[in-house]
Amino acid sequence: MSRPQPSVRRAVSANGAVQHPRSKLLVFVGLCLLPFAGALQMLLSGQSWIPAVAYPLVSLVSFTLYWRDKHQARARAWRTPENVLHASELCGGWPGALLAQQAFRHKTRKLSFQLSFWAIVALHQLFWIDHLLLGGRWLGSALGPLLR
Question: Less crowded by CB within 10 Å, the N or C end of the chain?
Fold first, then answer.
């Protein structure tokens, strides 16, 4: 006879609504502050317009990829490879990916995926900390030519 499985606390309620939406929104906004400030600073100073355009556009692409992958998973059809999802996050789509993960309850429980996702978010945060606070001495000097 099998043992009953312990209940797992989920981030959504039984009716599918996201639990703790205010806290999650606060975390989301906090994570977006550095990229937003950095992209705005680069745009207004004439350094580059790419981050100001890329974050929203690639986030929309990421959100759409997650939506499609969730839909395909339910239909048991061809899935979007995880490398594609991570590539879109790395290109600046992590805010859209984070929103999609919460909205669709997709890819939130797979530890290896989440570790890669949060490493990408951390890399973006480190880039903007370097750019805004350290004048781009670390990552900015290496990636600066790509943003021009």
Answer: N
